[in-house]
Design goal:
Layout (H helix, E strand, L loop, with lengths): L4 E6 L21 H7 L5 E7 L9 H10 L3 E5 L7 H9 L2 E7 L11 H12 L2 E5 L9 H5 L4 E3 L9 H9 L3 E4 L9 H11 L4 E3 L15 H8 L6 H13 L5
Helix pairs in contact: 6-7
Length: 252
């Protein structure tokens, strides 16, 4: 039986909505129909639309994309640190489940706001915070991050240097996306093995489509890399159950 797949990380870039240049880079168009075309045949039944640095605090594209995908898809948005409760609850109602802190590219709230915002959105809507960060940079804020009520990090934490810190955080419950293999500076198979051993309930698959600015884009073979480096007994966890529990889609 073919297992369903939960894609925990991809971007929708729709120029009907605000998109701005970030660090001298303008992303390619990648609307909902392009995502569906690129993932056809992969078994993806649920997923997460992630706000990009080039979308700043705009959420209009997110509302449109989640309406198009339906209730098995959710969102992770960038919001100002002082966003009103009413805005957070309205986003929650359409399927947003987290707030992104982009510490690599900007466009989000800052690390100084992390603890306060994380606790506020979790208390208000059970949201988590998602970090786009090099895990080596988390060593200095380890105590803060390890005590957050719910947190994830994208792209395997990006670096070999950051892996020891990441493993310590995973042991304390941080979720990790096995995404962006064309972005990272680490041994992907070794990192996947170590993370799965540290906490089999923490690792989640994501495509990172359209892989803007990556050295190479996502390939379906990346899914095989994950499968080859985990115990087959946890495949359903990594590709479905961990993400379903963490993101709480409105329907599956």
């Amino acid at each position: 039986m073919t297992l369903p797949v939960f894609d925990t990380h991809f971007h929708i870039i729709d120029f009907r909505f605000p998109v701005s240049e970030n660090q001298s880079f303008m992303p390619p168009s990648f609307p909902v129909q392009d995502y569906r075309q690129r993932t056809r045949g992969l078994g993806i039944a649920a997923g997460v639309v992630v706000s990009g640095s080039f979308q700043n605090f705009d959420t209009a594209f997110m509302r449109d994309a989640l309406a198009a995908f339906g209730p098995s898809f959710v969102g992770v948005a960038q919001i100002p640190a002082d966003a009103p409760d009413e805005e957070i609850l309205a986003l929650d109602a359409i399927g947003v489940r987290g707030v992104r802190f982009n510490l690599v590219r900007g466009g989000s709230a800052s690390i100084d706001d992390l603890d306060r915002v994380a606790r506020r959105v979790h208390d208000l809507a059970r949201w988590h915070v998602e970090l786009y960060a090099d895990a080596k940079d988390l060593a200095g804020v380890f105590d803060v991050v390890s005590r957050l009520p719910a947190v994830s990090i994208a792209h395997l934490g990006l670096s070999t240097e950051g892996l020891p810190t990441l493993l310590r955080l995973v042991e304390k419950g941080m979720m990790v996306k096995a995404t962006g293999f064309g972005r990272v500076d680490l041994d992907v198979p070794a990192a996947i093995k170590a993370l799965a051993a540290a906490n089999p309930d923490a690792l989640m698959f994501g495509s990172d489509l359209p892989s803007q600015r990556a050295r190479r884009p996502f390939e379906p073979a990346d899914m095989d890399i994950i499968r080859a480096n985990i115990d087959p007994a946890i495949e359903r966890k990594v590709f479905w159950e961990n993400a379903t529990r963490f993101y709480r889609p409105r329907a599956i």
